[in-house]
Amino acid sequence: MTRPKGERLRQWLRALRNYLIFFLTMCFVITCCMLLFLNTLSRTMGLELARPDVEAAAKITFLNVVLLSLACTLIDWLRRRWMVDRPVKIILNAAQQIMAGDFSVRVPPFGAMEAGDGFGEIAACMNRMAQELSGTETLRNDFIANVSHELKTPLAVMQNYGTLLQQPALPEQTRVEYARAVTDAARRLADMVSNILKLNKLENQTVYPDTQTYDLGEQLCECLLTFEDAWEKKNLDIRTDLAEEVKVTADPELLRLVWNNLFSNAVKFTEPGGSVSLSLQTEGEWAVVQVTDTGCGIPKEVGAHIFEKFYQGDTSHAAQGNGLGLALVRRVIDIVGGEISVTSQVGRGSTFTVKIRKGEAG
Fold it and tell me: Please, is 147 exposed, middle or buried when counting C-beta atoms within 10 Å of its C-beta (0-12, 13-18, 19+)?
């Protein structure tokens, strides 16, 4: 990058100013030292210095001061050029590339001399920032692409069935089925938008937990009972093993999101006639909740991604969800300081284990 003439002139003037300051400082210091030396020499040895001798010594000293000032100024300029200006220029170039949207840029490691001035730490911070921005940009692009894809499906369903509903000779039963399809697509669209807003608030930390100490077993029962119609429709066997008087200190509304998503997935992925189990036990300072189903199970390669936004391991159930539920679950568990894990066997079912710290009376 070529510097403008005005900037180069300012640099030369700044260098000249620095030299003059350094020169005058050395003149003052050396003059004082010489005067002190001569006075001491005259007093102790009784020498009488002639004027020509003093003038000759002054000229030689002045010349030495000029040469020493030039040498020191040159050495300092070279030092700054290599140890300050060079790393600053490299960091500025990297910052400009990042500002232009190139998050792949990295500041190369400096030598021991430059790193010792703190530029090594600055470069490391710049590289971490670029890496984080690169990851954020990738997530943003993926999020936009996934949202666009997920929005198209229910909108296409609503558009197609809405067009079919306009046929005047359509039988009443068929009209009801088409209207139900439009309603289901609209519900799915509304749920997805609602989950996106919740996830955005959680990730941007605009939701502040309202912690309370309450009975976790009662909350689990209340959430499970909201799915009674769904499990009765599939004739599922519901088993519960809940320890009594297990209290936690957390935000009940946030944890309600966790239990509702886990119960919804367990019922959704369990075939008719299967079973869903819920247990609540204590392990030391933890309240441990396990939700087990006898559904299709999760392959190992899928299990590594199930907490990612919009990821759906079983596409056969895609019409019943939008891939945001477990992302919400993971974020809530992180906020409340808990832990979540999953174990699964393909064809035999899955178990989600959630650990929440017990409350004061737990």
Answer: middle
pLDDT, tens digit, for every residue of 180-226? 888 888 887 776 676 666 666 665 655 566 788 999 999 999 989 98
Domains of the chain (ranges, CATH numbers): 5-102 (no CATH), 150-203 (1.10.287), 212-357 (3.30.565.10)
CB 268 within 8 A of CB 296: no
Alpha helices in 81-171 (DSSP H): 86-99, 112-114, 120-165
| CA dihedral of 176, 180, 181, 183, whole degrees rounded to 10 | 140
Mean pLDDT estimate for the chain: 77
In the predicted structure, residue 168 carries a pLDDT above the cut 80: yes
Q: What's the chain's Rg over C-alpha atoms?
A: 38
Question: Is 28 a residue whose pLDDT tops 80?
Answer: no
- Under the phi-then-psi rule, with left for phi > 0, alpha for psi from -120 to 50, and beta for the rest, what region is 330? alpha
- Integer Cα distance of 106 and 115 in angstroms: 16
Strands (E), the chain: 212-215, 237-242, 247-250, 275-283, 286-293, 339-345, 349-357
Secondary structure (3-state) at 234: coil
Which residues fall within 8 angstroms of residue 258, CB to CB, at 6 or more apart? 328, 329, 332, 333, 354
SS3 278: strand
Q: What pTM value is reported for the model?
A: 0.50
